[in-house]
Amino acid sequence: MHGLTVRWSLEDAPGGAAEALRGYVESTSHARFTGKEGLRFKTWRMREGEWFEGCYVFESPDQRDTFEREFTAVAAESPGSQLVGSAPVLIEPCEVVAVAEGGSGFLAAPSYAM
Fold first, then answer.
1. Which residues are within 8 A (CB) of 60 and not within 5 positions of it... i.e. 6 or more apart?
2. How far is CA 109 from CA 26, 48, 104, 113, in A?
3. For the chain, what is the mean pLDDT?
4. pLDDT tens digits, 94-110
5. How far, in Å, CA of 26 to CA of 110, rounded?
6. Closest to 3 (Cα-Cα) out of 44, 56, 53
């Protein structure tokens, strides 16, 4: 499968950026990507104070490359960039070798209680 990683540094982000990112994903971003044509799945990952990341997995390399090209053109003005105060430090295509679903099953949700 055809992955794309987009990562922002949170080292110099304003106070409250992590909470703002969680809220943005829950209220807006999750719905934006749910059901997106050509997207297999997206995950949002974060190490508070270190980095925030979107990991996208597409059905085809063309769909991934189109999304990468379109996103890169506006990355510095994207909602994630606005919330952390800087553009992504990494936009990198990759290969997703495999995905395993554990015994507890897959749970797609706009937020996971910590």
1. 2, 38
2. 8, 20, 15, 10
3. 95
4. 999 998 999 998 888 88
5. 5
6. 56
Q: Which tens digits make up the pLDDT trace of 62-72?
A: 999 999 999 99
Question: For the chain, what are the domain ranges?
Answer: 2-95
pTM of the predicted structure, to 2 decimals = 0.91
The architecture in CATH of the region 2-95 reads 2-Layer Sandwich (3.30)
| DSSP string across 52-101 | EEEEEEESSHHHHHHHHHHHHHHGGGSHHHHHHTS--SEEEEEE------
What's CA 93's distance to the chain center, in Å? 13
Distances (CA, A) of 98 to 2, 3, 43, 85: 11, 11, 15, 34
What is the CB-side half-sphere exposure of residue 37 using CA atoms within 13 A?
A: 3
Q: In what order do the strands lie in the sheet with 90-95?
A: 39-47, 51-58, 2-9, 90-95
